[in-house]
Design goal:
8 helices, Arc Repressor Mutant, subunit A, elongated, 2 domains, mainly alpha
């Protein structure tokens, strides 16, 4: 396989060895992208066990399909498999009622990403409280809006990348992100008493 400019040298070696059936090499790919994959799956599916299963299934699919990878962004290729797997999970549960958002788990390591060692304990507490409120707001969104908002605002994907990952038209991506942002704002404004004091108008 020729080395693609979007692959690092290390990734190119992992891919080449994985395409020859080297499981240890593929495990290096898993280690590099499993946290990102889990974070996206968790926010999309809103359930830790479902997210972990989706990630495991996605990497199994990726290993089986690695010989078809012909270059480009390895991260995008893996994320496209994950997005399709999440869609499969959502379709399978579509006839079942949604859990109450009060029962939804907080992503275990999410708050730790928001910690600034220079902040006072009360500032950290307010920041974590706000993060939890925003997570609850995101949890109220339809799954398709949760997915694109997570990819865009949490993980920093550009509209073009999201359109490629989800196989949606660009206009649909922009529209769903805008609607999701509006709904999150509206949710927060409906519950001003839940906002930390520093964030109240």
């Amino acid at each position: 396989m020729s080395v693609d400019l979007q692959l690092t040298d290390e990734e190119a070696r992992w891919v080449a060895r994985s395409q020859r059936g080297d499981l240890d090499a593929f495990n290096q790919i898993v280690l590099k992208y499993q946290t990102l994959a889990y974070n996206v799956a968790f926010r999309t599916l809103q359930d830790g066990d479902s997210a972990a299963d989706a990630v495991q299934d996605s990497f199994l699919k990726a290993f089986r399909a690695i010989r078809t990878f012909q270059g480009g962004s390895l991260k995008s290729w893996i994320m496209r498999i994950l997005v399709n797997t999440c869609y499969d999970v959502l379709r399978a549960r579509s006839r079942h009622p949604t859990d109450s958002i009060d029962d939804l788990p907080m992503e275990p390591d999410y708050a730790s990403h928001l910690t600034d060692r220079s902040e006072r304990p009360d500032e950290v507490a307010e920041r974590v409280e706000l993060a939890q409120l925003i997570e609850r707001a995101i949890a109220t969104l339809p799954a398709d809006q949760r997915l694109v908002l997570t990819l865009c605002d949490v993980h920093g994907y550009a509209y073009e990348e999201i359109a490629a990952l989800t196989e949606m038209p660009m206009g649909t991506v922009k529209s769903r992100i805008n609607r999701a942002r509006t709904k999150v704002r509206e949710y927060l404004l409906r519950f001003p008493e839940q906002l930390p004091a520093a964030f109240r108008q």
